[in-house]
């Protein structure tokens, strides 16, 4: 090889190296966009990183999730949450893992009387928020966070906020990868959330919008069956809400529910709660027994190491013939209810927003008909009934 | 006569990994090979023969000195069109058939497809592999592979051939066949550079030979000059002590065991000696030219040059 | 021309090499095995099929690329076939470039076969209704199969990225093979592959606030000069169609250009080293 050719090749190398280096600097920020999102609290061994090297991250994630399902059926609940963490790290776009993980955290750790362990709620919310961060373009994760607030936390204003986000996003058909209009139930649950939070005008607008959207949906997916039914459902719901709006607007604060609640210790960690309230059958009085000054924790990022010293118990007491009555036995649940604080508050609440339709016809959207003394409490525009009993640790032990 | 190969002061040393010393494999080698001859390049294993050939082919690069083939610098692409090389115990792509491998080498010379096909078939015929041409080389015997090696060395109709130990490991019949083939190459006017460590390979075919040891050429010349000093042994029976005395005038080393004579003479004295024996009533049993091996010649040559013989054990440890 | 002859011969040689064929068969087998995977739900089934298919193509492709890369040139040298080639009018660069091109074509053919098997399995597995429709002579229903074409083109992009990644890997192995023994080269090429896959680690080392200021330029130089195989680790958006994919085509093009430039660097370096190699 002549010196000239050699010099040319070395020059070419310099140019190519410069190009490669510049291209790498250019690619680095772009690459981040196409690689799985960032997750917190990984705490994983190198064997998992090895799997990622050969591009099998999603497979490992998927197979671990199959194994997780077995844990669930074996009742090995404690193993599930770390698996959720691993799988969502390997593939933060497997949304059903976020969904199932959050459901599991919210519902499945229960005491001996089937009440779920409320201390996991912050973790469940944080997990879904991470799911939203990593999957911000489809409706799924927003809907799940909305549903957690709607169905478990019973915070309708908060749930409406997330359903609203879900309701402006599309779904993706997992098989074809093509975008598809979100299912009709998203708009429906949003409207229900507005109703339950007492935001009746927003509910009416949402039902009108739902009718329009459902018609559009039925046109677009004409080959699917049952879409026309959803249009009719939305129409019926709109008519119902309009009728309710009219009748409930006439309610005046004259209704006395004669609310009273009592607490009695039966044995260590065993007590009876009972009381009277003149509301229709099917209403529920919510009982919360918690450390005095209890405040739900906020997890900035997902973790599942909950504060083991807190006590929070929530139960819904069914009202039948104007009475409620339940024996609460937490003798075998000292892990969930450690009772470490000196003082506790037992709160009995009837929130009209959380009652069935028929009850709200009597009480109003937000309790506008309620006139009880001494337990009437105003929360913004809402009028709720609430009685608090302060308990000593010795009262419970 | 033109020189096909001219080597001037060619030097190459290797670093020995084990002893951490530089070993001079070829030491200021100067050599001319006239065109149209079969040149025997002799030397014991490790003498530097293969190293020299590899430098001539441009496979390795000399530390100093130069070599020209057919007037052009060795290793030049143009030179390579006119020469060819058969390595010692060659390996070819085993997945190919005899036809395919020769065709492949033909394409490397840029021979057009039509001509290549004819040439390859002709060569396969010539080396006696026509019936095995569609068999994979994996199933060839060592002799067949050696013949494929020769055929690939002929694919470009070369003017100069470098054959490195072409008969090593072959059976006697194959040996003879290769020898005939080499003789035919000379008839066709080609120059053959034949490297070997066996005298029997070269003595029947070579016009000129050189003897190399430890990277240096010790002797170059016509084969018959090299073999000068050859003696013939005469053995006879019924030889009397009186006859022995007369024999000793011609062959001073002659001796008797009972009545059996053993005598050693220059080839031109054989007739005289036989006459003396027969005239004195003796009975000739055998007249045998003494077989001097290359080693004998080596030792002789090397002793004349006053240097030790190449250490054979060195061969494998050179870092080549 | 001579380069092309060497390349063609390399392809013929490689396609008949048992060990490479074994990897190809294992790859095809593992892709086909995914037909039998049971899954929890459809979305997950699709995710795993895609990830597993792409992963298998890459996994077995790594073996093919490395084994081919480390052996092509050294086996010629060890078996002395190189003597009969370089003593013919073959320029040394023609030999190296020809060997490399042959490896590139062989790799392409292997990846193509594995990728085609994967796409076929994917189409069959996700498209049971279309095939059922065909069974019922419902040809309109069967035409639904073509709805998958956009999905398939995304996966083809993924397979192309696997090819670029492995081409770069093969070039690394071939470059080292010019002056290194096979065993050393095997570990060295594997190590370069692992480091190059951890692009995000080398990148964050360079930008982390915990890194000493004097070391940052060193880390940065290391990051931009090491062959960044991690650039091709973008199967996630291809597996999840709901993840943003805007500009991914442009990104793939740029990543391919990057790989091509780096591959040329390695081949030119290989040529320069081989130029003075004593065989």
Q: Beta fraction of the residues of chain B?
A: 25-35%
Q: Structurally, how many domains make up the residues of chain B?
A: 2
- Whole-number tally of structural domains of chain A: 4
Q: Numbering strands along the chain, what is their spatial order in the largest sheet of chain A?
A: 6-5-8-10-9
Radius of gyration of chain B: 24 Å
Give the structural class of chain B: alpha/beta
General description of the model:
The complex is a heterotrimer of chains A (397), B (320) and C (279). Chain A contains 13 helices and 10 strands. With 397 residues, chain A is an alpha+beta fold. Chain A folds into 4 domains: 32 residues; 82 residues, no CATH class; 114 residues, Alpha Horseshoe (Serine Threonine Protein Phosphatase 5, Tetratricopeptide repeat), CATH 1.25.40.10; 137 residues, Sandwich (Immunoglobulin-like), CATH 2.60.40. In chain A, the strands form 3 sheets. A 5-stranded antiparallel sheet of chain A has the order 6-5-8-10-9. About 2% of the residues of chain A have low confidence. The longest helix of chain B has 16 residues. By secondary structure, chain B is of the alpha/beta class. The C terminus of chain B is likely disordered. By secondary structure, chain C is mainly α. Chain C has one domain. In chain C, α8 runs parallel beside α13. The two termini of chain C are 23 Å apart. The mean pLDDT of chain C is 85. Chains in contact: A-C, B-C. Chains A and C meet through α1 and α3 of A and α3, α5, α8, α10 and α11 of C.
List the helices and strands and how they pair.
The complex is a heterotrimer of chains A (397), B (320) and C (279).
Chain A: H1 3-34, H2 46-53, H3 57-74, H4 80-90, H5 95-107, H6 121-134, H7 140-153, H8 156-166, E1 171-172, E2 179-180, H9 185-196, H10 200-220, H11 227-249, E3 260-267, E4 270-276, E5 284-291, E6 312-318, E7 323-329, E8 343-350, H12 357-363, E9 376-379, E10 382-392, H13 393-396
Antiparallel strand pairs in A: 1-2, 3-4, 4-7, 5-6, 5-8, 8-10, 9-10
Helix pairs in contact in A: 3-4, 4-5, 5-6, 5-7, 6-7, 7-8, 8-9, 9-10, 10-11
Chain B: E1 3-16, E2 21-34, E3 38-42, H1 49-57, E4 64-69, E5 72-73, H2 77-82, E6 83-86, H3 98-108, H4 113-126, H5 142-154, E7 160-164, H6 172-187, E8 191-196, H7 199-203, E9 208-213, E10 216-222, H8 223-226, E11 232-237, H9 241-250, E12 255-257, E13 260-265, H10 270-279, E14 283-289, H11 294-305
Parallel strand pairs in B: 3-8, 3-9, 6-7, 7-8
Antiparallel strand pairs in B: 1-2, 1-4, 4-5, 9-10, 11-13, 11-14, 12-13
Helix pairs in contact in B: 3-4, 4-5, 9-10
Chain C: H1 2-15, H2 18-33, H3 42-78, H4 81-86, H5 92-126, H6 128-135, H7 139-143, H8 149-177, H9 182-197, H10 199-207, H11 216-225, H12 235-239, H13 248-275
Helix pairs in contact in C: 1-5, 2-3, 2-5, 3-5, 3-8, 3-9, 5-8, 5-13, 8-9, 8-13, 10-11
